[in-house]
Amino acid sequence: MRLGVAVDIGTSGIRAQKVDLDSGEIKKTVITLRNPLPGANIMDHLDFAINYGQDLAHGLHVNAVRKVIEQLGIKPEELERLAICGNPIQLSIFQGIPIDDLAYAGERKKEKLNIKEQKRDAAILNCSDVPGLEVYPNATLRVPPAIRHEIGADALALIIKSGFLETTDIAIATDYGTNAEMALIVNGTIYTGSAAAGPALEGQQITHGKLASPFVISDVEFEDGNLRNYVLDEEMNTIKAKLVDPKSGEVVEDHPLKAKGITGTGVIAVVDAGMKAGVIQLPKINTPDHILHLQDKVKFFEQDVSEAGLAMGALRAGHLALCKAAGIEVSDIRKAYMSGAAGTYMDAVKAHHVGMVPFNVDEVIQIGNTSLSVAKDILLSEERLWELQDIARKILSNHVMFATDPAFKDAYIQEISYWTEGMPFKMLQKILKKKGLPIIEEASKTVKVDRRVQRDIPVLGEEGLEVLEQVGTYLTMKVECPECKKCIKVCPTDAISIDDEGVVMIRSDLCDGSNCKRCIRACPPDQFQWKNLKVMEI
């Protein structure tokens, strides 16, 4: 059997599949629960690569993919072909393409720093030519194209797989993940953006949050004042599980399926159900201890409400900014496409109710993991790879850089006030109108949902699904310092260890990256410097 691997490198994790190149049959699926780079969002990853070396970041990426391939049960000499899809930052780091043009917003800034735009065209490479992939002597690497340098292969996958280009309606497509890539089509012109919503939509930076994986809560509903939990089983199917008292966690109706956390879709469901029931009145939780108790001691706190709100607000602000750029009202959008793991498992009606889907759309279409699907397509067909290159060149696209866009900034400031300070919705509408932004109407109808897939990865393969718990490798350096171990004590994720010889080891996938850096600040003699880190070989 000739073997290939299709990989989606996401900001919050990796999804990969072993594929029989002769039959096209998927044999096995492996997912990770973190990205191998320090940090939980794209800005952390950018900061790490820019400030501490893209070679370091590249090494972590390559080591992670090698771990995934090993977990798929493929020996180095057996791999014939590898196809990778993802956002432009993750793909560039993996390929070793400079990312300065992605790290800085504004043409003047780039000109001042003499930053040149990099080509991110479709490519077929020998794995032996990519540092770290020399272990696959017989394999080639296929990479899909970006539309423009900042509109990546993942956005192209979203546009292609949704059928977006064929629709005659005004439509919006959104990948409900950490970066929240989105595209709006109006009269054949596509407007794109990336809202950097943060990892809450994928279950991270939530107290008991986890990525979509077996045995996590993916949905909830109130039943006569109690909270019904829905949990993903080992094959990622949604199972009706325990009914609990949300004020205490006491089990009202038992079920054998255990939960070990809550994923992003569950977070959205909790916020929606809580707001409908009046248990959540932004930004507060109206229970005696200000906590919503789910099953198996999984809890949802007020800070989780705010964290989720910031992510949902970024999405809605992004939709507003694209509408502003296109010169339309939000109410003009007729169709909404949802992709990604969160976009698959999320209850579309609930997402619509909390504003993650424009309120006045007629139809919501859930389409699964488009990035992994495109990786599989080009793995099996070189012709398809070059077709995608042609499509990318033909797409007429206007990219809205939300980091510098006044409409996004104005809208997001109001969203922050709404979600974290309890600003009334009518006041939000009033301020948006005053600022000349598209108006958000309240949900006035029940939306039609076309759920085309039941799982974000529809086919897992005969060997099933495995979760790679440790995707990161160790970053190491030698230090000479007092044995205070303050760096270890302050690390919130227990990512750091130091041996008797003063060798520091940081588990990269647990490290919170630039969002934290407590280890650096805690070191009295300033011995703890990330610039001295190296990737441990695997």
From TrEMBL:
It holds the Pfam family Fer4_7. PROSITE patterns: 4FE4S_FER_1, 4FE4S_FER_2. GO terms for molecular function: oxidoreductase activity. CDD domains: DMSOR_beta-like (cd04410). Residues 472-501, 502-533 form the 4Fe-4S ferredoxin-type domain. PANTHER family: IRON-SULFUR CLUSTER PROTEIN, IRON-SULFUR CLUSTER-BINDING PROTEIN-RELATED. This is Putative metal-binding protein. It comes from Methanomethylovorans hollandica (strain DSM 15978 / NBRC 107637 / DMS1). The lineage of its organism: Archaea, Methanobacteriati, Methanobacteriota, Stenosarchaea group, Methanomicrobia.
